[in-house]
Specification:
By secondary structure, the chain is α+β, with helices and mostly antiparallel strands. It has a single domain, classed as Macrophage Migration Inhibitory Factor (2-Layer Sandwich). Helices cover 28% and strands 26% of the residues. The chain has 1 helix and 4 strands, in the order E-H-E-E-E. Strands 1-2 form a two-stranded parallel sheet. Helix 1 links the parallel strand 1 and strand 2. The longest helix has 19 residues. The protein is elongated and about 40 Å long.
Length: 68
């Protein structure tokens, strides 16, 4: 039984997160050739105050990483 965990900063549209979970489950089922019912996908939402990129908290609104 494949288990996929997605960690993300909280605040995204709930419907978009649910769509993501469904699409990831389908992709895992297809690529690993396992029954869809055996795939588990979990989304962990972390408060922006508890997520840092380098020394910058996501709640501070800017990232120290250069834009792609």
């Amino acid at each position: 039984m494949p288990i996929v965990t997605i960690n993300m900063v909280a605040g995204r549209d709930r419907g978009a997160v649910q769509d993501c979970l469904r699409e990831v489950a389908k992709a895992v089922s297809s690529t690993l050739d396992v029954p869809l019912a055996s795939v588990r996908v979990l989304a962990n939402e972390v408060d922006p105050e508890l997520w840092a990129v380098g020394t910058t908290l996501k709640s501070e609104g800017t990232s120290p990483l250069p834009a792609p």
